[in-house]
Write the structure tokens for this entry.
Amino acid sequence: DAMVIQNPRYQVTQFGKPVTLSCSQTLNHNVMYWYQQKSSQAPKLLFHYYDKDFNNEADTPDNFQSRRPNTSFCFLDIRSPGLGDAAMYLCATSRDGRTRSFGSGTRLTVV
Amino acid sequence: AQTVTQSQPEMSVQEAETVTLSCTYDTSESDYYLFWYKQPPSRQMILVIRQEAYKQQNATENRFSVNFQKAAKSFSLKISDSQLGDAAMYFCAYRSANAGNMLTFGGGTRLMVKP
């Protein structure tokens, strides 16, 4: 059974139209992460929540925001998607920063 | 800052043969963890194997084993009896035991398995 669930698997959005990607987990992990992965590249950390504390990576564009309303859910909001934001977005969780459990990802297409 | 380098963008192996994927890293820390993740075409990142730096014994998980050389900062993955299902991107990753949260990935190696 999937423990880190990302919906949808594929998302198509229009250039400049806000889009939200969702992640939920059944592991009760206190840390949740969002990664961006472009084709044939390593995942790049955008930000993470350690419990309720939000930690943004220095080079994450302002266009990317995140919300974590409770332990189980975390959302990635892209306010004005550009063509360069087309990528796979991976959600991951961990207990206190230990081994990550990854979701299957959401592939975002910007048209 | 830590860096992780995978010098082989692509590797190919014949089914049932053995293949070794290379990984080197750079760190000034003495306590850390190293990982190999597999990412098949379905794209879910799966943990293959993990090594604690303080352990001298190389980690093994069924057909997967590592050659951890701490002094050389090398962490290679050996896949024995390769199967078609092993075809995937493989990422080597480093995590400090102290900082807790940062997971530094290498650039990945695409493994192809020939029938």
Summary: Chain B touches chain A at residues 35, 37, 42-47, 50, 89, 91, 95, 99-103, 105-108, 110 (CB under 8 Å). The longest strand of chain B covers residues 88-96.
